[in-house]
Amino acid sequence: MTRDTNAQTRFQTATLGYPRIGKSRELKKALEAFWRGQSNAETLIQTQHEIELSHWQTQQNAGIDRIGIGDMSLYDHVLDWSIYLGIIPERFAAFSGLERYFAMARGNEGIPALEMTKWFDTNYHYLVPEIPEHLQPADFSDFLATVRRAQDQLGDRAVPIILGPVTLLRLSRFEMNQSQAASELCDRYVQLLQELKELGVAEVQIHEPALVFGDAANFKENYQATYQSLSQIGLAIQLVTYFDDLGDNYSWVMELPVAGVSLDFTRGRNLELLQQYGFPEDKQLGAGLVDARNIWKIRPDVLQSTLDIITGVTTNLRLQPSASLQFVPYDAQRERKLPEPLLQVLSFAEQKLEELQLLATHLRQPQEAETSLEAIRGQWQAFQDFSPVNQGVQERLQRLSSQDLERPLPYEQRLQQQPVLPPFPTTTIGSFPQTSDVRKLRVKLKRGDLSQAEYEAAIDAEIAKCIQFQDEAGLDVLVHGEFERTDMVEFFGQQLSGFAFTEYAWVQSYGSRCVRPPIIYGDVARTQAMTVREFKVAQSLTDKIVKGMLTGPVTMINWSFTRTDISRREQAMQIALALRDEVADLEAAGAKMVQIDEPALREGLPLKPERWDEYLSWAVDAFRLSAAIAQPQTQIHTHMCYSEFGDIIEHIERLDADVLSIENSRSNNETLFEITDAGYKNQVGNGVYDVHSPAVPATEQMVQQLKTGVANLPVSQIWVNPDCGLKTRSWDEVIPSLKNMVEAAKVLRQEV
Ligand code: GLN
Ligand code: ZN
Fold first, then answer.
1. Which of 43, 57, 292, 353 could form a disulfide with 39 if both were Cys (CB 3.0 to 4.6 A apart)?
2. 466 lines ligand 1 (CB under 6 A)
3. Cα separation of 246 and 262, whole Å?
4. DSSP code of 291?
5. In angstroms, rounded to a whole number, what is the distance separating the alpha carbons of residues 553 and 476?
6. Is 493 annotated among the ligand-binding residues?
7. Which tens digits make up the pLDDT trace of 209-265?
8. 431 is in an annotated binding site
9. Is 375 exposed, middle or buried, given 0-12, 13-18 or 19+ CB atoms closer than 10 A?
10. Active site includes 692?
11. pLDDT for residue 1 is more than 50
12. Which ranges in 387-500 belong to alpha helices (H)?
């Protein structure tokens, strides 16, 4: 590698966005107070600006050379861009200002919100732009005001972040003709760049993550034409891509008329592509080296080999996180309850800023970084000693054969040994209302106001109430109600070794909603039965069948921060082994049915369709490993909500679950028909009741839905259930709703 005299300025650091919710979730609190009418717009905006300023200062103090700004949002950055660009659907025409903003985000008196969906393969959700027939005028004043504030604070370190025009189009729905929309929007982006130039901005980041989609080539001309127009303004454009590699599009993307291209080197094969095709001499490489999607510190030796390859190709580079840091929490050092060796290898946003600076120092003056890098190596070593390989788990995994993934008999033969129920058997998905009284029990237990025995007695009283209600309502297959569970992943993670839980590590899921994903840090093993006690209590209270209730391995993986030293597949298989033992214990305790929920199975699909099979293959294997221990007469259920199945149906079949319950009430039977059209043979739990609405579904409405279902599926294949668990509903809603549902099943039994 050649070093030049510019080494001091050459290896600069840049960020691509920061968390938004506030270090102590200040934005969440401010939003919720505003929505409740307990504060006003001014206070809300002031809070937003204060949080934003603190982010800028943190990045400035960390020494970041180019700080991405303008990504702070009251609800969602994609919504912000819809509004700046005048992409306002007709139905919001009567609103303005914040009222319109939140109407688009959350709906307003019968006017539905924009649709919300997953942001690429992250657990963040954005609002889908709806491009109406006629755009409203663009209005960049809020964005420009942010830029001015940032310039005051950061000078020319401030680099505006712009959501890319082609990505925005790619994610939108259209009423307008698509090519007309492309050209109208392009004009507006040109206008924006002009206005930024007038403010003295020299450089912008334009984020085009859609360039990593498998279908990016279909938009090639659009990218070329758009960036041709944008390049005319004379700003330095940093074209930012992330979440995966550029694949076959690498070569033409490198030729776009921009000053720099950012690549994610933590996912996909960008490093190979760089080696193979090189990097244009006239462009700067934004090297996404620090993983913005996971919470681990850098591993100096792994990173060194990546750096060697990159610097062998170009030294005109910047050191960056792989994407916006919005996907990680703020500060690992705030955690007080994690074991020290684990804490020392965690890196949240603030630690990642330090890592960027360290890498820059390392490239500029290697000897100056050596002490810090050596310290990190030592921390990883200490962590390894603290969390050694679990030999027992490793040996079990090695001994596994394909037999272990196979139920003892095929479905048709199992069916004959399984419980006989009336046609249209009714059941629920597992959880019943988590009332504040139930949640208080856990607080009291934690504080020591309740002993373990007192806590369990109180939970058992809830179970008893729940069983009695289900019995009286006439449901056929009962559940214990999941009162002992905070969250379907956390509950299991807390009982498994290898999982850690944080106090403050919140990340935004959407709007004001945050999640605190568990951290899988070591080999996962079960130390004792996790659900058997509550199952037994429930089953002892009724002659009807009570389903055992577990969270599946794939969902646990997809809703956690996972290890990077072993594959996700291996981690899923370890969890599956633990669940396998739990299934066996439940069976031994008398369970005739066990449900293994996998609501997040589809969420884990890779961005590039060519990698779907690889993912689904291990994901389905992990599910099968957990379920296959069951005797033929034990009925295995699974549940997946808000999913589409059409394009992955052969994998759903390979799960080999006896009963699959799905959300179906909001899709107008779409979801059900996807399954039946594909010729799915096993039983399907037809979700007939929307658990996200407080409305009590009428019997007649559920009867109608079931009838259309019957027209497409033999009666023997159909179960009747709500779309999902009932934990967010109140008993007042649940009681009449389930009674109506049972009534609907009875109507069908008579008519069909
Ligand atoms: N058994 C879980 C429940 O009822 C399933 C939740 C889910 O699908 N997200 O709460
Ligand atoms: Zn669900």
1. 43
2. no
3. 11
4. -
5. 27
6. no
7. 999 998 999 999 999 999 999 999 999 999 999 999 999 999 999 999 999 999 999
8. yes
9. exposed
10. yes
11. no
12. 391-399, 411-417, 436-447, 452-473, 490-493
